[in-house]
Amino acid sequence: MKRPLKFSEHFGLKTLVLLAVFCITSCGKKEEEHDAKYYEKIKVEGQKEAELTAPPLVPKPVGDRPAMKLVVNMEIKEQEGEMADGVKYTYWTFGGSVPGSFIRTRVGDEVEFHLKNHPDNKMPHNIDLHAVTGPGGGATSSLVAPGHEKVFNFKTLNPGLYVYHCATAPVGMHIANGMYGLILVEPEGGLPPVDKEYYIMQGDFYTKGAYGEQGKQPFDMNKAIKEEPDYVVFNGKVGAVAGDKAITAKVGETVRIFMGNGGPNLVSSFHVIGEIFDKVHIEGGEMINKNVQTTLIPAGGSAIVEFKVDVPGTFILVDHSIFRAFNKGALGMLKVEGEENKKVYSGTIQEGIYLPEGGTIQNMPKENGVAKSIVAKTVPEQIKSGKELFGRTCFACHQSEGQGVPNAFPPLAKSDFLNANPSRAISAVLHGLSGEITVNGKKFNNVMTSQNLTDEEVADVLTYVYNSWSNNKTTVTPQMVKAVRAKPAPKATGEH
Amino acid sequence: MISRIKTAIFFLLFISSLCAQDVNMAAIDGGTFVPLYGATNKKPVKVAPFKLDVYPVTYEQYLAFVKKYPEYSRSKMKGLFADKSYLSQWKSDFDFGKNNLSNAPITNVSWFAAKKYCECQGKRLPTMDEWEFVAMADEKRVDARTKEEFNKYIMSWYEKPNAYANPIGKTFKNYWGVYDMHGLVWEWTADFNSIFLSGESRKDKATDKNLFCGSGSVNATDLMNYAAFMRYAFRGSLKANYTTRNLGFRCAKD
Lengths: 496, 254
What we know:
A: alpha+beta; Immunoglobulin-like; Cytochrome Bc1 Complex, Chain D, domain 2; 3 domains; 6-stranded mixed beta sheet; 10 helices; 24 strands; disordered N terminus; B: 254 residues; 8% strand
């Protein structure tokens, strides 16, 4: 009795599973084929010139417009730009920006692509659009000499967010110099409307000089082949999406970022500090993943990320391969304005001392922050221990040579803010510092946390900083720190 | 008999020395070398002895030519032989304007115009092999292509904007006494389009597997390939009626 029952159960289940699998695969396949053919057959209505935008902006959504003939006029320019403050680099660009102009199309559009190579350029170029179905993605038809123009047509068959790039030899060099951008193929009826849309692309750069080395920096082929970039940046340069140029939104708005990765070499672990992506179009395609912390963007690939911003503040965009963010420039900012929402995020509500049982740090309370040692150190001794302290505590933000991170963390090297007022510097270390300050002519608006250090430690680290990187050689003594500590802490400006 | 031949030779020498253009030509001994492209199976190519202009042709020289042959002036030039940007940087037909130095290399000239210019001087355009043969020399050696610094110098020009506005003769004098093969402008060659690069370089790669096969780091050969590849890729993008701002020429003679 048992046996036949089991058999029939088995049989039934197997058949069902088989049937289901068959149905899913066959139905799915059939639909896909239908789509491609369907889009190929879509008739276009009317013609217009495509709106092209430089990052971080994108053209207007296609909405529910019919497929049409879209004329794209793309000009290639070889031009000098700034990789970072004081660092010059010759970029090769589509449309005068890195990444190149954003192209927004709809599935079924017939694109008439005009590729124009500026007469002053030295190099022949072409374009490979990943949205193109055809040899070389257009590259075989578009090699264009300086001072000339090539025209080719293609029909967009697959919705998605695609990378385009130059594919003229040496391909790696053309891409490394900034020749990439994004072309969006929206589905019928367009992507769902959102409040803010932005265009950001990561790229790695290889210069003869190390990160931050001033002056004109030529491309370094050797580093490019070794895949050891000096710069990993968003939108072509350090700080292109930070400070004054940060992207913005208001509390309650939904932000959509068309995020690409031009490479040439690195894969991006794209992450927004303090946000969770509500939706990610994985690799720029149709599949949507929800509630994503970090999304992987391949070189020559993309992702569309969407998230609603619930609380105000500055949200940092990073490549979470994190040394790239803090040491090579892969750092951007999203500034959100609006009402606080303490339910979602409270801010610091309590600050206390944590004493692990049997811990060695016994004299942490601030009142006890008196110098432990009775014997006063010499200045060289102070510098020596200050240097070690700096390496542990300060360097993460202010960087090894005190150069800081443009638009995020102010420099300590040759810093007018620092040199002007040692008491203020002591206070900053003791109590933290927040709100807008101006250092060497650049504005910074960030938060430095208070450091739990002894008077002697504060004296040592500041003496080290003051005696390094062309600062004014002030010697800070534990007595000076003690005096500042005795005064009431200044009211933090940025915190509520 | 012998004395007559001697006289004839003397007379010929005398005539050739009268021709000022020849003074500014360097004698190239010729030899064999393996060019990056064009040599089937990487066999050496023979270059016969010839003469090459020491400098690229300048504005001043080209103006003299245009005055002598007005059909090559900007407004008279036939569209078949030069596109619209032909001499577009000039002020007028017979005036190259104040923005262009008289001793800067002439650019925005088509292959047809360059060829004609050379013919009118009793010369010709150098072949690509001849040009490449001379271009592989640095100050001291005939073939410096494997020297890293040499290749870096060549590649650095790709990043210098507006080099075409510089006067001739400011780069280095090479082994043959020739200037400006690198660092000033691209130059036309007689058979510039004899090697076909489709522009889809990744496809071209299949025809030359050695070119970009990745070694762990760049050695001098890779750099040499990159530097030279740029020239071949540039030539591959041209047509004979094209004119561009960074493309000039110089003449050769047997």
